[in-house]
Fold each of these.
Amino acid sequence: MIKAQIWDTAGQERYRAITSAYYRGAVGALLVYDIAKQLTYQNVERWLSELRDHADQNIVIMLVGNKSDLRHLRAVPSDEARAFAEVNNLSFIETSALDSTNVETAFENILTEIYNIVSQKQMRDPPEGDTIRPTNIEPIDVKPTVNSDNVRKQCCQSS
């Protein structure tokens, strides 16, 4: 089971003063812009910079173009946002909260990516104290055995 805690600052300036509290311990972030408002896309670079400054260096970040249902009002081309995501090593998806297009997929994708990274890290670096070590083991001395060549000759010789 994966438990996700989601914080939505909606890009509001009043949250800038406490961003370090939001970013501390975060393992994933969705940077969401409105595909119909160029200014929201322009702010993504600043939010990304703040994330990289305050969050863990291994944080998983997904760029999300929201309101894909407003195709006729599109101000941010998908190709431009996708290219930005690639250059900055971000996942990318377009969603619509209005008609639910790709909303669940966006969360599933980022949570899967986080899970995979955390699982690999735990396999590489098991936390101290997590290994079970028996306490009642005493060392034993193992004496060298007879040379194996001699043993083979003795058992396999014909009389």
Amino acid sequence: MKFRDFLKHRLFYTIIYFGGISLAFIVMCLTIKISKVTIPAGNIIYVYGIAVVFYMIFMTYEHFKKSY
């Protein structure tokens, strides 16, 4: 199975994964907004970047595990 086909089969998992990360980030932002502290935009990009990297590592591992 090709990697793209594998990701298409895992579309719901992908939506849930990034939805959960987004929800956690929204809660964090609301908490910080109540405390009147600002978050630099670079930190926001960094958080999502780390999440994407870990997601791709996990999906690659799952793909190879399923292929062999």
Amino acid sequence: MDANNKDKNLFAERGFAYSLNACQKSCVQKHIYKLCQCCDVGFPCIEDALQRSTGIMAREDNIIPICNTTVFKTIKCIADIEEDFTDNKLDCTKNCPPACEETSFSMTVSSAHWPTRDYRQTLLSQHGLDQNVTQPLEAAERSFLKLEIYFDSLNVGKVISQPAFTWNKLLSDIGGQLGLLLGFSILTAVEILELVVMDLGLGIGLRPLLRR
């Protein structure tokens, strides 16, 4: 799948690569624009991409209005489309194949009180607060935050999808089956021919005896 396919991925106008989620959101937004004549703020609203991919031009100055969620008709229109998407009636799943390459990160959050009792005085001294703070621990906990972001693991997993049945395997199986059937056919013909010859030979050998 082309990462810059702007018909399936409206986010491509903003430099984002193709992903299954981006394609499905773009699909829902295009249906909302077609049927409700507006943009839902919960999905990408890039006017040029929407008008090009749907072939429907905006009514005024190429600006697509944001859906007014205070109007019952608009709310119902959006709700019906989202329900159709949930029931897989929009073909968004069919038209949005998985990305050929995709990077994802699992996020975990852990927290603890910081700074520790042994470190708080050093921290306050570094920022010139030790002379003016009457409650150093509480002040440090309210005034400072330590954030560390790191990879949980440096392992790399690679998933390769391959067709379960290729043309080479199909032709090989067909050739094997034909060879097997042809082999049985030849063996059967030889057996029948051998039986006929034996019957004829036996008949010729017994004919003089029968005449006596």
Amino acid sequence: MGFLPPEAAHRQLLRIFDMRIRKAAIAGATALAVTFSGASIATAAEAPSDQNTTSSNQTENKGGSSKIGDALDADTNADGRKIFGQDADVSSQPAWAQALYGIGIASAVVTVIGGLVGPALNFIKFGPIKF
């Protein structure tokens, strides 16, 4: 792109800016359409009280998520006061609560490290002193 007179350069910048605005508007409209296209109200018909509502799924084989749930004591309730309270004892909680607690700690550590390393790398790459 060579030297352009000020008017031509101004028109070209407006054209580029206009295209970016159009692309952003199309992307936003697409995101809204995708977000709300699947939004429908789920309703279920209530069974009359005289009908038997027991499930016949009890004889079927359990899937992978059920096996994981059984391994992590998914049916056992956790007590948040024993996890996050002053007398915290995570070992007395079910396995799923212990796993989520560990994931939460790990994600907090990764967030802090990323918050420190990211800006430092950005400074090294684009800062006033080039390495």
